[in-house]
Design goal:
This protein is of the alpha/beta class. It has helices at about 5-55, 65-70, 95-110, 120-130, 150-165, 215-290, and strands at about 75-85, 115-120, 135-140, 170-180, 185-195. Helix 3 (about 95-110) links the parallel strand 1 (about 75-85) and strand 2 (about 115-120).
Length: about 290
């Protein structure tokens, strides 16, 4: 049985941990509000851009379409851009993203496809290289960004387009976690190249109007597609950031509650041990007095 001093030290240690987890919960809650606002603000732009791309792409077919739209004509080599957080203490947030990436990798390899991986975020790299180190071709470090913005997304977009221009892959897919609520984040895989509108995106209703484009639809797509890809990457990174803070807030709240429960249990055991020691001392005193 631990001594009373050991119980006191353990209770003090758990209380210190509880203060840390409570502080981290409050910080995550403050950052979540900003991150959630940024993610929700990016959705209308991404959806509208997807509608424009869907409308223009319907008018451009075959060899006249930009390479980012038509692809290489093959789907043998796939690039997975797996995004995650730079830090942990967020429950199963990163594990869910990596699990989806592993499922995609297994599915593609079962079909005889070649898979390559670019990781964005230290946690994705650390988890994937345990099993797929040979498939990781690059890692993009965004730890220097205190908040995700368009310049961060452009770094990822430029890297993906550079690999595509070099013929390193045929199809690129972004793997991220879509923010739904504090306790719900949905792992999502979205194709970047060949560019296509996400499921559910519809072309804008032109109400029967016919537009003549100057320059041509192909030239407009040539200019818009890199921005569209950067916009999809930016939305994925912002959704990831909001999901991370939501998951961290929830995890720290659970940790704080668990620490409180442990303190109660330790305090109860401490009081029982203290009472047992007092009773033992009283018995020894009484027994000594009776012996005299």
């Amino acid at each position: 049985m631990p001594s009373l001093k050991e119980f006191r030290n353990r209770i003090a240690s758990v209380k210190s941990t509880q203060k840390i987890t409570k502080a981290m919960q409050m910080v995550a809650a403050a950052k979540l509000k900003r991150a959630q606002g940024a993610a929700e603000a990016a959705r209308p732009y991404a959806d509208r851009m997807a509608s424009v791309i869907a409308n223009l792409a319907s008018s451009v077919q075959g060899d006249g379409a930009p390479k980012l739209l038509r692809g290489t004509g093959s789907d043998q080599t796939h690039l997975l851009v797996v995004t995650s957080s730079e830090r942990g203490l967020c429950g199963g947030f990163n594990t869910q993203i990596v699990r989806l990436a592993r499922e995609k990798i297994s599915e593609l390899q079962a079909q005889g496809k070649t898979v390559k991986i670019v990781t964005v975020g230290k946690k994705a790299r650390d988890q994937l290289r345990r099993q797929y180190a040979s498939l990781i071709v690059d890692h993009i470090d965004l730890s220097g960004y205190r908040s995700i913005d368009a310049s961060a997304a452009q770094i990822v977009g430029d890297k993906v387009r550079a690999l595509f221009d070099a013929g390193a892959f045929d199809v690129a897919t972004l793997v991220f976690s879509k923010f739904r609520s504090v306790i719900s984040q949905i792992p999502t895989a979205r194709q970047l190249i060949p560019a296509k509108a996400p499921e559910g995106a519809t072309a804008p209703d032109l109400k029967g109007a016919s537009y003549i484009y100057e320059p041509s639809e192909a030239d407009i797509l040539e200019a818009l597609l890199p921005r569209y890809i950067d916009g999809q990457v930016l939305q994925g990174l912002l959704e990831n950031q909001a999901g991370f803070y939501g998951a961290q807030m929830s995890a720290m709240d659970n940790a704080t509650r668990n620490a409180g429960d442990l303190i109660k249990k330790l305090t109860l055991r401490y009081n029982r041990q203290r009472q047992a020691n007092i009773t033992k001392e009283l018995i020894e005193i009484i027994s000594g007095a009776e012996a005299l």
